[in-house]
Specification:
binds ligand MV4; globular; 15 helices; 455 residues; Rossmann fold; D-amino Acid Aminotransferase, Chain A, domain 1; 3 domains; alpha+beta; five-stranded parallel beta sheet; 20 strands; Dna Ligase, domain 1
């Protein structure tokens, strides 16, 4: 059964999470690390560890020859890429397979199909999944863009076909702006993603961001593990996520899940994946893009379903069939995740230095995913995520209350963190009522800071 040894091509809390899943399955683990991460928790916890290069990620965690060599030297049969880094690199997935190392993720073909956002949108249309009114495939030139924008009505959004996650997006509020917007968006896309291609959508006002978690095996079986609500974000960085969404009815939930599975089948998707949707005020949902990796916020889904998603990723990659059908799955309670980051809570400026004290809350229904211990020097080279606090409750109100109490028991000293921001959001009336969109955080931030400073 499964693998004897897996290499984890990542760092931080997700590397630790994957090591734990491997340990559960009786699989030996190989950590890779940069010179900045010699003392990192994933290095200390793995069965073996290999240095793959200097601190900058491009020379270590993104260094494909070094990572493949590390797997070959240690005899690892599979590589788990985690999130970020090489996780959505179709070439890397292909290289792994050509070296007879199993890539724990979807086939390279599925990563490529979903990686082209204009193509993914077209595919959704073909299989009857709603998309936001817009272009068929890419928009070739300004002339075509102007015609389409007139038809759709302003505001419209130009998006890079090779982009995603909000990168390379441009709102166009009127025809006067179109020419400049089109040219600059094209130039930016070419520079950032190596491809200038753009597509266009009508711009939705204050949508909610709801994503569906799916699991698919190599035998054509697929299930959805319901949805996560991810609207609490700033500049496309999620801050708080929860499951289930406070606004979905059972009927809408099933429609969303079934739409997600139509896309899974259309691209021949295997392994864990996420389909992102925008939901408008009238409850209409629209597919926007897919993430072909494990996501940061996967624990909220694990908490409400009781399913270990990382374990299933490994089993699926090893050729095992899904152990259940959709009818076996149900939602139990509610879960919330707060991302604790090394940054100023109000300016969001990164905070570097040494964590001199770390105390984790210990209470029923609370899970902490972290690679933190103290003292620990946070390297300045990688992202600012320090810990994920996940709280479960019988209902949403209980999950929120438990999260707030857990955060008062969490101590991270020596650097600045965004814990004060989380505490303010958890007390906010609109948040309590579940009344928020993707614009929520940026619009209430000044108010939250004022309340915090008056305490
Ligand atoms: C949109 C949109 C409004 N209208 N598309 C941003 C990230 C990328 N995945 C898609 N994004 C958006 N696409 C249309 N046609 C608003 C956003 C958006 C957003 C989406 C999800 C989560 C947070 C967001 C924050 C700002 C804008």
């Amino acid at each position: 059964m499964v693998f004897r040894k897996v290499l984890i091509a990542n760092r931080g809390e997700i590397a630790v999470r994957i090591i734990a899943a491997c340990r559960d399955l009786g699989i030996r683990t190989v950590a890779v690390y940069s010179e900045a991460d010699r003392e990192a928790m994933h290095v200390l916890l793995a069965d073996e560890a290999i240095c793959v290069g200097p601190p900058p990620a491009t020379e270590s965690y993104l260094n494909i020859p070094n990572i493949i060599s590390a797997a070959e030297i240690t005899g690892a049969e599979a590589i788990h890429p985690g999130y970020g880094f090489l996780s959505e690199n179709a070439d890397f997935a292909e290289i792994c397979e050509s070296c007879h190392i199993r890539f724990i993720g979807p086939p390279a073909t599925a990563i490529r199909k979903m990686g082209d956002k204009a193509q993914a949108r077209q595919l959704a249309l073909e299989v009857g999944v709603p998309v936001i009114p817009g272009s068929e495939g890419t928009v070739e030139d300004e002339e075509q863009a102007r015609k389409l924008a007139r038809k759709l009505g302003y505001p419209v959004l130009l998006k890079a076909a090779a982009g995603g996650g909000g990168k390379g997006m441009r709102i166009v509020r009127g025809e006067r702006e179109l020419e400049t917007a089109f040219r600059t968006a094209q130039a930016e896309a070419a520079r950032a993603f190596g491809r200038p291609d753009l597509y266009m959508e009508k711009y939705l006002i204050e949508p909610r961001h709801i994503e569906v978690q799916v699991l698919a095996d190599a035998y054509g079986n697929a299930v959805y593990l319901f949805e996560r609500e991810c609207s609490i974000q700033r500049r496309h960085q999620k801050v708080i996520e929860e499951a289930p969404s406070p606004v979905l009815t059972p009927k809408l939930r099933q429609e969303l899940g079934e739409a997600a599975l139509r896309l899974v089948r259309a691209v021949g998707y295997v392994n864990a994946g996420t389909l992102e949707f925008l939901v408008d005020r009238d409850g209409h949902f629209y597919f926007i893009e897919a993430n072909t990796r494990i996501q940061v916020e996967h624990p909220v889904t694990e908490m409400i379903t009781g399913i270990d998603i990382v374990r299933q990723q490994i089993r699926i990659a090893a050729g095992e069939a899904l152990p259940w059908t959709q009818a076996d799955l149900q939602i139990r309670g509610h879960a919330i995740e707060c991302r604790v980051c090394a940054e100023d809570p109000w300016t969001f400026m990164p905070s570097a230095g040494t964590v001199t004290r770390y105390i984790a809350p210990q209470t029923f229904g609370v899970r902490i995913d972290t690679a933190l211990y103290s003292p620990y020097r946070v390297p300045p080279y990688y992202d600012s995520l320090l810990a994920k606090v996940i709280a479960w409750g019988e209902d949403r109100a209980e999950a929120i209350a438990r999260m707030a109490r857990a955060l008062t028991l969490l101590r991270v000293e020596g650097i600045r963190t965004n814990i004060p921001l989380h505490l303010q959001i958890l007390e906010d009336e609109a948040f309590h009522q579940g009344r928020f969109s993707t614009q929520y955080l940026e619009s209430v931030l000044p108010h939250l800071q004022t309340v915090a400073s008056s305490k």
